Amino acid sequence: MVVLGPTGAGKSELGLLLARKFAGEIVSCDSIQVYRGLDIGSAKVSADRRQGIAHHLIDIVDANQYLTAGAYSRLAREAVSAVQRKGSLPIVVGGTGLYLRALLEGLSPAPPRDEKIRARLARTFARCPAALHRFLRRRDPPAAARIHPNDRQKLIRAVELILLERQPVTSTLTVPRDSLRGVRVLKLGLAPSRSLLYQHLDQRSEWMFANGLLAETQALLDSGISPHAKPLQSLGYKQAVNVLTQQLPLAGAIHECQIKTRQYAKRQMTWFRREPDVHWLENFGKNQSAQSEALLLVEKFLAA
Length: 304
Fold this sequence. Notes:
Layout: E1 2-4, H1 11-21, E2 24-28, E3 55-56, H2 69-85, E4 89-93, H3 97-105, H4 115-127, H5 129-139, H6 141-146, H7 152-165, H8 169-173, E5 187-190, H9 194-210, H10 213-222, H11 237-244, H12 250-273, E6 278-281, H13 288-303
Parallel strand pairs: 1-4, 1-5, 2-3, 2-4, 5-6
Helix pairs in contact: 1-13, 2-3, 4-5, 4-7, 5-7, 9-12, 10-11, 11-12
């Protein structure tokens, strides 16, 4: 079972309810909650809020490391299998679309990241942003048509794959994926009204900064985590780092966090609306009518 949706939609609340009602365990699908010490900014479910329900794939990686979608997929599939062996119901909860796709559909068996190549390509992009896209147009026109010239992350990965595989990235990515087998999946999606969601996200951004986000970020920096570490470039933490390094005033950081979070939620919904076979609940996860509808859907699914 999967509970998906944008940040702030109440996925954790709904997941906990379903876990209580149907003897389930939570398998997190969040690319920031995997990191130790990133609690407030990731809206991580605290131990007391878990109500004794087992949670998997939370606090499994140090913040100076990086967990790829492929690595997440392997760990998540192991967790799902372990929960099933115990006779419990695995409930995948989260809003990281790439992680979810990797878990359910698998990823193309492309080679892992090569940090030396990536660093070289990043320097090239910094000097001349158009250079990587020109290379891609020559070597793989379909990929160049698909990837925007300013999309640094996708450009670097595409060129990296061409250099590693010595073939167009389109060919590499069309190799069949290793989809999840032997598991029936019910997908529940939360889709509260955009205006109410944005209002909630604005309030949550203010709350984070007023309730320890700066201290949490400072503790990570004091432990030796680089301010440029990927987890600290995520929403909330990036703005907190900028406050602590005096690059942004507090009010400006909160405002930027609000804007970026709303934009992120919009991108998530665009991604998830393309996800097949989702039963959409047009409200927050804490809403009683949404919870009642979810319970009925799960009961019907489990009885089938």
